[in-house]
Design brief:
Number of helices: 4
CATH architecture: Up-down Bundle
Helix content: over 70%
Order of helices and strands: HHHH
Mean pLDDT: 93
CATH class: Mainly Alpha
CATH superfamily: 23S rRNA-intervening sequence
Largest sheet: none
CATH topology: de novo design (two linked rop proteins)
Structural class: mainly alpha
Strand content: under 5%
Distance between the termini: 25 Å
Number of domains: 1
Low-confidence stretches: none
Radius of gyration: 16 Å
Number of strands: 0
Length: 123
């Protein structure tokens, strides 16, 4: 499936772009360097792993890449929570990003479960 028609790819890319913009804002305007860099790494890694999954060599490889993306999404949520709870980002910023992230997480879980269920049915 090409990247243009892959919904999870598009969701994760849009989210990564939001994370890049937030990172630049935190670094340049708010002087926050440590947590924002962690957020930048994990938030963009979600999409990178999804991009890799598109050309997976097997279902197991595909599930592995999506599972890594899921772990990165969980880490990203942790960094967003820390930024919010330390009052570096606003509640509005936090909620907007976490809402998008929850959509990505839910979509990843659905895809992974669908493939696992299909494999069980095929046995």
């Amino acid at each position: 499936m090409g990247q243009g028609k892959n919904v999870i790819y598009q969701l994760s890319k849009c989210f990564a772009l939001r994370i890049v913009r937030l990172y630049c804002c935190l670094r340049d305007n708010r002087g926050e360097y440590v947590i924002s860099k962690q957020l930048y790494r994990s938030g963009t890694s979600i999409g990178a792993n999804i991009a890799e999954s598109i050309y997976a060599q097997s279902d197991a490889d595909y599930i592995s890449k999506l599972s890594i993306a899921l772990k990165e999404a969980s880490e990203t949520e942790y960094w967003l929570d820390l930024l919010y709870e330390s009052e570096v980002i606003s509640e509005k910023e936090h909620n907007s990003l976490v809402t998008d992230l929850k959509t990505i997480i839910g979509t990843l879980i659905n895809i992974i479960n669908k493939i696992k269920n299909k494999k069980r049915e095929d046995k």
